[in-house]
Design goal:
Layout: H1 2-26, H2 42-73, H3 75-96, H4 105-128, H5 137-171
Length: 175
């Protein structure tokens, strides 16, 4: 079972990297959006992993994404990715594990996207030594509402089919 779990986490990591890479290639900075703002499609994979494997699986994906940012875009991108990703993953997992949870994946997506943006904002403040960057937060929060809604909606739409497929994969006898 450990081999299947590792295999599945590796496949999910690859999917997250492909979504993130495609997003960066296909969606250049759009003039009316905050600089560097992206929809965060790879966070769909992280949110799914958080619901299926909990914090350990989700943080695995987050770290892989941060290492990929390091290798492909450098140290600053890795720090930004990890600061946003770790905070987002923590919020995501806290909301998923809540007793009697009332939030849908859309609500969790909005909260985790906003946390991701705030983590990156604080990292930018630390890297630049400039607190005035915090004024950019209102735009990032608004963008997080939109992107979190989109990622949460996509996950809710595909989750039933994904769960069936993964459960079948995990139940197959090893050959």
């Amino acid at each position: 079972m450990k081999t299947k779990k590792l295999t599945l986490l590796s496949l999910l990591s690859a999917l997250a990297l492909v979504l993130g890479f495609a997003e960066n290639m296909l969606l250049p900075d759009i003039p009316f959006l905050p600089v560097g703002a992206k929809p965060g499609l790879s966070n769909i994979v992280t949110m799914f992993t958080a619901s299926f494997y909990g914090f350990s699986g989700a943080i695995y994906i987050t770290i892989i994404k941060g290492l990929f940012a390091l290798v492909t875009r450098g140290t600053t991108a890795a720090v930004m990715s990890l600061c946003g990703g770790v905070l987002s993953t923590a919020v995501m997992c806290l909301m998923i594990k809540r007793e009697g949870k009332t939030l849908s994946y859309i609500g969790i997506g909005v909260l985790s996207a906003s946390a991701h943006n705030m983590g990156q904002l604080f990292a930018a403040c630390f890297i630049t030594g400039t607190a005035s960057i915090l004024s950019y937060g209102k735009y990032l929060l608004l963008f997080g509402l939109v992107t979190g809604f989109v990622t949460g909606t996509v996950l809710e739409a595909v989750l039933p089919k994904i769960k069936v497929t993964i459960n079948q994969f995990l139940k197959e006898k090893e050959k």
